[in-house]
TrEMBL record:
The chain crosses the membrane at residues 6-25, 37-55, 61-85, 106-130, 186-205, 211-230. It comes from Methylobacterium oxalidis. Keywords: Membrane, Transmembrane, Transmembrane helix. InterPro entries: Photo_alph_chp2. This is Photosynthetic complex assembly protein 2. NCBIfam families: photo_alph_chp2. The lineage of its organism: Bacteria, Pseudomonadati, Pseudomonadota, Alphaproteobacteria, Hyphomicrobiales. It comes from the Bacteria.
């Protein structure tokens, strides 16, 4: 088997399963959140220990460990935000008629502590991998952070597909920070930069002088960046994104539709829990 096949397939499988698991946990009844958060925090501690232990391991196993552990750290960030434990000083809908910079400021206030937690996580990984041969955990985390931020900014500016079925009921207030538009100025820049980064990472993985450790690490990063770019395209093209994680989404009746125009923020109404 090609030396690129296993790390690429591993990245796809872990990305798909971890995303679905987070969606599943976020849509469980709210009384389960404290247990999910407690479990995620234990996993976070183990992941940080694994990053520290693998930082000096320039082997194929070390690259796999670094990637997996960084993904688990990122999973904690996602769970803590979507379960409402780490959000912002004003986690509520923007006042009616809010436009321009006021809308951006309200959006920032709704998730400021989440952004600070992401920075803290990145600094922790940077410290654990400082001057170490294996920094794939740091690169993994930075790619997840950058692509997530890009996706959120694109949804703020306006995208064709909001994929509202992924949003838990208790976060329906976030609808006012989303727009439904056929295109926005940032999107072409986002996908172009992501494509260039994926190409550069792929070039590093294919380099003749690359060691086995680097082949694994850069193949995983290339695959991860390509998947994140695909997720961006899900926002604009009529692709069945929800079908990929249908097993993790709750069965619902007719949920509230997203009532939008091309220039107005989205409004995601409250829906009854399954």
């Amino acid at each position: 088997m090609s030396p690129y096949a296993v790390p690429a397939l591993y990245a796809v499988a872990v990305w798909w399963f971890s995303t679905g698991l987070i969606i599943l946990l976020d849509h469980l009844p709210r009384h389960t959140f404290r247990w999910s958060m407690a479990g995620a925090s234990l996993v976070l501690a183990a992941a940080l220990l694994a990053i520290g232990a693998s930082a000096g391991d320039a082997s194929e196993a070390g690259a796999f460990t670094a990637f997996t552990a960084a993904l688990l750290v990122w999973g904690w960030q996602e769970i803590s935000y979507y379960m409402g434990f780490v959000s912002g000083p004003a986690p509520r809908a923007c006042p009616p008629g809010t436009r321009g910079f006021d809308r951006f400021r309200a959006a920032a206030a709704a998730s400021l502590w989440h952004e600070a937690a992401i920075v803290a996580g990145g600094l922790a990984i940077l410290a654990l991998t400082w001057d170490a041969p294996n920094r794939f955990a740091l690169w993994t985390y930075l790619i997840l952070w950058g692509m997530n931020l890009s996706a959120r900014l694109n949804m703020f500016l306006g995208v064709r597909n909001l994929n509202a079925e992924f949003l838990p009921d208790h976060l329906s207030y976030l609808g006012c920070y989303l727009r439904k538009r056929p295109m926005n100025p940032l999107f072409p820049i986002s996908v172009s930069l992501a494509t260039v980064i994926a190409a550069l990472l792929g070039r590093a993985a294919l380099a003749e002088e690359a060691a086995a450790f680097e082949v694994v690490g850069f193949t995983i990063l290339t695959t991860l960046t390509a998947l994140a770019t695909l997720e961006h395209w899900f926002l604009m093209l009529p692709l069945p994104a929800a079908a990929l994680w249908s097993w993790s989404l709750p069965a619902r009746g007719k949920g509230a539709a997203i009532a939008v125009t091309t220039s107005e923020p989205a409004e995601i109404g409250h829906r009854d829990a399954a």
